[in-house]
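Field log, afternoon session.

UNIT: design team B
ACTIVITY: writing a sequence onto a fixed backbone
BACKBONE:
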């Protein structure tokens, strides 16, 4: 069990390369435990679902174990509320088609301009197919926070669904999804939350949020390329899926079309096991800046996420402070210390005189991985007037990053001049 950040980093084979991975929002690196879980699956239980033989039975048992672990991670009421898929985008495309069956012409759907397009385009498309109305919730370009005072005027008796992101993958804003869900339910609408970008940074409690659906991608929280959807059981039970005829007609199986990525699901279980073993470094109590001590043990991955959230706030503060001292650099989103509780450690910027792609290429040559462009948050870069200028440079931190890596980033950026 790791006791320090250095011991945590030692569990990630990719980090031994000496490169700096600030590309977490596009996909985090994986610990050895994930790799071992996937290798063990392919070696000892590689089989399809539902067979009357040992490897198929072992495979089914592992999938059930992973489903139960994810139900705990999200605090779902039962494992059958967890649906596996290729990724969040594919799951949303699929479930939105099922939801569309119940929509009528002139029904309304609310989307936000702060979201990843995977939580916008599926709803735009079904609105077009079903002759529904799309309402847009805008955000403030000064601090990149949703204009929640406008939500009440958008909601009405025709609203059927509100789609919102838990945290922006472009500018890091954490949205008050619990309050948005509550307002949606007041008019009888469903709330569909994209938690892809929040999942690696803090605890998720779907029962407390009372959301109807919540989606995430395991490769954003230290696992392999697998998507995960939570849905209230009554919704999953009532929705009619698009599926082949012999497939089961009960949740979650009826939404898991074709053969699942079982070795990937094994890796998801490994990622959750990895997180649950970080109790010696991260706890829900406030942590010292020196993490070499051993704080009080905590029992599970959801509790550990509270400690990760605290540690990442210290990294975010250092990153913002460091970037603000670079002449000509503009950070898009919240930067004040008192706003750190309302953002994740994803910071996007532009630098006068440089195209974002040029910066990313130069940093890449220095061994620093960052993203540039719109990151599929097209509505964000369009609203900020940056889409035709190459978007932004995005620095995305997670708990395996360090203050020393931020210093190296600053040196590399200053050398551009």
């Amino acid at each position: 069990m790791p006791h320090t950040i250095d011991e945590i980093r030692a569990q990630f084979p990719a980090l031994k390369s000496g490169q700096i991975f600030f590309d977490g929002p596009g996909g985090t690196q994986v610990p050895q435990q994930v790799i071992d879980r996937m290798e063990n699956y392919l070696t000892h239980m590689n089989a399809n679902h539902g067979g009357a033989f040992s490897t198929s039975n072992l495979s089914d048992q592992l999938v059930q174990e992973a489903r139960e672990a994810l139900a705990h991670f999200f605090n779902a009421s039962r494992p059958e509320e967890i649906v596996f898929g290729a990724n969040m985008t594919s799951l949303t495309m699929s479930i939105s088609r099922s939801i569309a069956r119940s929509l009528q012409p002139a029904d309304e759907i609310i989307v936000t301009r702060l979201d990843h397009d995977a939580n916008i385009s599926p709803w735009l498309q079904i609105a077009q197919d079903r002759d529904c109305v799309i309402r847009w919730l805008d955000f403030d370009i000064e601090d990149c926070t949703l204009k929640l005072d406008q939500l009440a005027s958008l909601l009405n008796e025709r609203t059927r669904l509100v789609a919102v992101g838990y945290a922006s993958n472009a500018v890091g804003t954490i949205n008050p999804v619990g309050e948005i869900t509550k307002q949606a339910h007041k008019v009888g609408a469903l709330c569909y939350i994209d938690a892809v970008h929040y999942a690696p940074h803090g605890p998720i409690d779907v029962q407390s949020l009372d959301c109807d659906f919540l989606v995430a991608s395991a490769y954003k929280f230290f696992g392999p390329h697998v998507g995960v959807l939570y849905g209230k059981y009554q919704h999953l039970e009532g929705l009619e899926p698009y599926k082949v005829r012999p497939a089961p007609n009960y949740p979650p199986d009826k939404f898991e079309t074709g053969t699942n990525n079982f070795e990937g699901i094994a890796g998801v279980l490994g990622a959750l096991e990895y997180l649950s073993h970080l109790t010696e470094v991260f706890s829900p109590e406030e942590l010292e800046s020196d993490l070499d001590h051993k704080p009080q043990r905590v029992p599970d991955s959801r509790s550990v996420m509270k400690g990760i959230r605290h540690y990442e706030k210290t990294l975010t503060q250092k990153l913002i402070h460091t970037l603000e001292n670079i002449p000509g650099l503009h950070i898009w989103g919240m930067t004040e210390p008192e706003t750190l509780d309302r953002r994740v450690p994803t910071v996007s910027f532009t630098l006068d005189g440089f195209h974002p792609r040029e910066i990313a290429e130069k940093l890449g040559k220095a061994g620093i991985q960052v993203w540039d462009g719109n990151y599929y948050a097209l509505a964000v870069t369009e609203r900020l007037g940056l889409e035709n200028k190459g978007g932004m440079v995005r620095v995305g931190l997670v708990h395996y990053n360090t203050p020393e890596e931020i210093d190296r980033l600053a040196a590399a950026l200053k050398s551009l001049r």
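LOG NOTE: The chain is about 35% helix and 15% strand.
NEXT ACTIVITY: expression trials, pending approval
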